[in-house]
Amino acid sequence: MKGLMQDYQLSLDTIFRRAEQFYPDKTVHTGGPAPITLTYGEWADRTRRLGGVLDTLGISADGRVATFAWNSGRHLELYFAAPCTGRVLHTLNIRLFPDQVVYIANHAEDEVVFVDRSLLGLFLPLLERLPQVRHVVVMDDLPAGAPGAEVPDDPRFHDYEELLAAAAPVEFHVEDENQAAAMCYTSGTTGNPKGVVYSHRSTWLHSIGVLTNSGIGLAETDTVMPVVPMFHANAWGLAHAAPMAGASLVFPGPDMSPAGILKLLQEQEVTLSAGVPTIWQGLLPLLDGVELPKLRRIPCGGSAVPEALSEAFRLKLGRPILQAWGMTETSPVATASHVPTRSKGLPEEEQAHLRARAGLSLPGVEVRIVEPGSITPLPWDDEATGELQVRGAWIAAEYYRPDDGAQLNTEDGWMKTGDVAAIDQYGSVRIVDRTKDLVKSGGEWISSVELENLLMAHPAVKEAAVIGVPHPRWDERPLACIVLQEGSTATGEDILDYLRPLVAKWWLPDAVEFIDEVPKTSVGKFSKKDLRTRFANYHLK
Ligand code: ADP
User: Which residues form the AMP-dependent synthetase/ligase domain (predicted)?
Assistant: First the structure.
């Protein structure tokens, strides 16, 4: 028997209209050198006008509308104006190497790029290599008269505010929930960037997932600050979920410094703020004696969240970090780690161990682990480890025109993540490592994530990254690359002595190298690729 319910289209214009009609007084604040606060009512009017601008510029019916921008209220206008007029928002990662930006923009066939004036100097040298870009719209995020790159005297260039002032607001209507709403390329930590194309439906359902308490638990009462860039997997869904819930938004603009972020957390009374671990690691030294009583939730993911970091936040602010796992390909939030009711009475230390896991899949997403290279499921006993695979309402089925024909899904419809994980009897995922980052020693695996987790709990260690280096007998052995806390004098032997009782003997790194800084990727993750290159010819003594 068939259900007899309406076939209602889950499209982003329905989220837009909620914010416009139900929450016109809620605010969107952008920080930085030219701070500005708009109400959702004003934002909605501007977003409708921006839809008119896209028509005036002659952007094709499903044309790609690119952004090269910080997190800002204007970026949020683009987040809705593009998809709600049938176009496809394409957020370019401003921190990629120029060749990669050029590759991505050409691959996506971007027709127009909206650029922050503070980023114009970075963007201008790329333009002549982007033959399909017909318009560049400059969004002035600097104070009047502030120095910055000159806008060229070129008919392709326009001023955002002038276009908006001249445009008429348009009606939003999206025919089909399965049409593309936005696209985002993987940040390329492990290879060439690949395009992921989100539909209206997947984005809508992911937003609901973010609102659930099993997900991020974002609510109308929140003031949400996505520190995670809007070009990193749609700011993890926060920029869609906040207008859906009616939560106010705060964007850092171009000031991503720890001091700038702390100032916004305090002044704007932010209640929920998300970013990769390096963001929170950077903030930690500033938190002594600071109280952030309003901040109730700190979602963090994108790479392993060290237990020591989460605990440091709990001890300093009274709130631990909420770990979530996901990928650009999973919209991105796929699992989140909450301490379940049955574990609430456990000692804090054990609860911290639970929070250090990736946690349960959100409603709408399923997980399994399989033997590498197969589709044979492995048991959920927290012992067996295998490739993590996912399926669900906001999981990518395939990449956008992959150059290498890469198959993202298995023959039975699960997405291959390239992560290695274990799952416990209750379904809680523990990420062991990325397949590419595992240290392969004598045919066995050593988890770099687990070693880093332990190393970062050492009081003298500021950052730790473990990579495999070539070894004549064992194939690879772990090398610990350590950044010491300022003023610390710990030696390699001290670090190894500390690790010795905590890990199996054969897991102990063969050497410790002290470095000034762990190289970071374009989205602020530890770049193991760069470290491996640096230590490619490392000779273990
Ligand atoms: P890229 O693969 O280019 O870095 P993504 O941001 O999509 O781009 O990265 C997804 C990857 O980040 C995952 O496959 C996983 O390896 C890692 N990751 C994300 N969240 C976590 C987490 N909570 N713990 C461990 N690793 C994580």
Answer: 17-400
